[in-house]
């Protein structure tokens, strides 16, 4: 009887935790893509323009970088589960406050709160999956990746569909619901000792970390991820605005953003499998860089006529994102090495990504045209290509570090 009760309790908790993971993953990008197609509508009411839209895009990536780096310290203090509850509660509050914003300043402040929580949740979700479901990592990691993309795809469509009859405030506020439910689920089901919980590993010593930073593996991955994030968040922030300026309308801009994001779902399945089979996956990098160049060129030639083809090329082009995540596993032979690679890649990468949306806003506001933006974005692809080729070489951060003498 006791055994049956324990089994039912275990199954019930597992179900709640899977639901918590699913809702968390779904919510990680809704605040980004659910805002972009409404930005000009909101700006018309709150009286801001392209520069502020660029600032909002920069806040997203800055929060991912800063609060992603801070989240492990909070998790060590209160545990992974309660750190996640704090993160999601903050994001829920930020979402509601953003929808209620009476001024541009209030909108910016609430956006910081929203993405501070999301930045932490980005980092906390994967170790929580490992901790609670050590024997289901593949299935739940795939679920996480796919639902993240599903949320990113659906958010702009739902946002416009809600904003037209009910206004932009309701279109922003609805995303507080899955965040709040996820926070409740984590607080309800996340107590107690997880089956995969283990003692924390000793951190790498300072000398080892210095050697790691000097390795081609780290530098290549940091460059590749940085430029991938730079391009991704520039596109997510500005693609609806490009559509509007081309005369396609708000609904078309939202649909284009969803179309662009949809390719991330397929990439989550295809790219990691290819990267694991190829000893040197530089062909993936070359193909992605070429497609990004084609996408920007099509927008430069005629954004209205080639919008859908450009969105498809750009959507496939940023498939270097799942490639980076896969290369963390392939380019580290120890858990400590993988942890260092992931932290360095995301911390620096999202910091670099802050630049894209902001600079684009300045350029468009200053010149009144998108052409300098397209030229600049194509030029930066050289850095992406170089970083990707270096990161793709068959090696590991540990092996590279062994060859370095202080």
TrEMBL record:
- Alphabetical list of Pfam families matching this protein: MFS_1
The residues that cross the membrane are 51-70, 82-100, 106-129, 141-164, 170-189, 218-239, 251-276, 283-301, 307-328, 340-365, 371-391
Instruction: Give the matching PROSITE patterns.
Output: MFS (PS50850)
Task: List the InterPro entries.
Answer: MFS (IPR011701), MFS_Cyanate_Porter (IPR052524), MFS_dom (IPR020846), MFS_trans_sf (IPR036259)
Annotated Gene Ontology MF terms? transmembrane transporter activity
User: How does the protein's chain sit in the membrane according to the entry?
Assistant: Multi-pass membrane protein
GO cellular-component terms in the record? plasma membrane
Which locations, inside or outside the cell, does it occupy?
Answer: Cell membrane
Sorted UniProt keywords: Membrane, Transmembrane, Transmembrane helix
Quote the PANTHER family the UniProt record gives.
Answer: 2-NITROIMIDAZOLE TRANSPORTER, PTHR23523
Task: Report what the protein is called.
Answer: MFS transporter
Organism from which the protein derives: Agromyces seonyuensis
